[in-house]
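Need SpoIIE family protein phosphatase's 3D structure for a figure. Predict it.
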Amino acid sequence: MTESVSRKGLPANQLAAAGARKFVRALLSERAAAPPATAGPGAAAISQELIHDAVLLTSELVTNAVMYAGTDIDVTCRLEYGRPGEEGAGKRRGRAKVGVVMEVSDRHPSRGVRGGVDSRSGEPGYGLQLVGALAESWGVTYHKAVKTVWFRLEATEGEPGTAGSPSRQLDSRRAEPPAPLSHPVRERARRPGFAAEWADRGGPSFLAETSELLAGQLDQDMVTALAAQLLVPRLADWCAIWLTTEGGGMQLSRVWHVDERRITPLRDDLERDPPAEIVRTAGIPWPWPECAGASSTGGSALAFPLVARDTDQGVLLLGRAGHLQMTDTVVRMVEDVARRVAQAVFTARQYTRQTTISLALQRRQLPASLASIVGVDTAIVYEPHGEGQTVGGDFYDVFPMGDRRWCFLLGDVQGKDPEAMSVTGLARHLVRLLAREGHGVESVLDRLNLAMAEESAEAVEQGGEQAASRFLSLLYGELEVDPGVPGARCTVATAGHPPPLHMFLDGTVEPAAEPQMLLGIDEGTEFQASSFTLAPGETLLCVTDGVTERRSGNWQLDDNDGLMEVLRDGMGLGAKALAEHVRRAAHDFGTGPVEDDLSVLVLQAVTPEADRRP
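Structure prediction for SpoIIE family protein phosphatase:
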């Protein structure tokens, strides 16, 4: 007997079951297809049916672990090969044998295995019935810190259930689920008048397919759409899903019918008669809608609750033509599907809620629009690096200070996490407050530097030395315009920020400010500003290090004054076109994706005849 062991760790989320299925299927398929010299003595016994059973049962156990334990999960696959002997007088090679032992472990040993008994109805669950029906043996092992649910499958080369042999047929003893406990609603459903049973047309892989389709869906309407099309026509002729609303009501999210022409009238019919209250018990009879079809014989409709984390998510309604009795096996199947749908809806709602809050907070970090400056065109290009974010560590602002004076800034906070985003809002609003109190460019930087240094000191005092200090680079300046005089008087200073570039009419480009220390490092630092005239036709380019430090191999974009060359190449362009030109140059400089926030601010003095502003 030889043995091989493979393990995979999975997080406790909606992708866990899909990850487990992929792991088991890939592992067993690889062993089955490997050459005999490397595959092991029993690999010939690994059939597609064996792989299917192992994938299905593992998926069920992982789903149970995610729903009831909620901890990280380890999936272990142990292959036990029986070495072929010799048979008969001719000494033929014996048939290969293999045992597949799958173990699903979680870190919640104090919580029992609840896949076998439904937590609300007290009836056997569907997942462990599959394990009991298909596995040679199974059980639960409790350790001090780990609980493991395991099962064993066996196969022999050439026997039913292996490659090249007839399909395995489960005997009636193993295929029949255990007798369920009494359920009051189902007992009421067993009244005279039912002509036949509500058959299960889903197949043994139905639950696994449901989990795989719903995994990772972060939109509740997409969840209900997939669920409805999965249930129809496998388990019902039509399906309707109501979802709870924030106001405590019910909204019809999805309606599906085998006859698509009936979907709209069925929706109208159901919307006129929504659930009066939350359904608490599975399999409650529901009035048959006239628009559902089967007008001569009527039909059977049943409602199931959608509950996740002890929270009502809605109601699932299934209908099928004819007076049918839903068997306990089908009820448990639908209950399991309803739990998966409810969990997917709950996850999608949590994601949507967090995303909405995040976007609302992010929008407050940046100005809604840039102030219009008389005699100066302005343009901004802003690309946050984080996926799904509207705001990153970079921030900008242009705001008026009276009729003749405007302030502008471009900054970058160390880091890209939510803490960094909170600093961007603090810095931008503090700069506005200081400017409105009459502080000039140098004074604004001095006071902002003091505030950042004090906040870093407080963070270290509260969180210890491991607390991350927040440093800030900032370019801040003022533009002052005299009525009737073209151009503007500019005063600007930088603190740990790439210096702004001043491009003259003849194409000459030079830095407009001297480099200085980052804000928040030394509270005693005094900052110096530079003043100059931005004449008509001249441009001031301000960027963050996402542009200057854009990499291509060992080179950065600003090496050898590369940004100056990019600015010269854009000579003659308007402010918006020039900002886009710089953004495109940064993207084109490297072959990989941009690894940082990217921000470009262009201020361009215009000639009086070109200035269309009042």
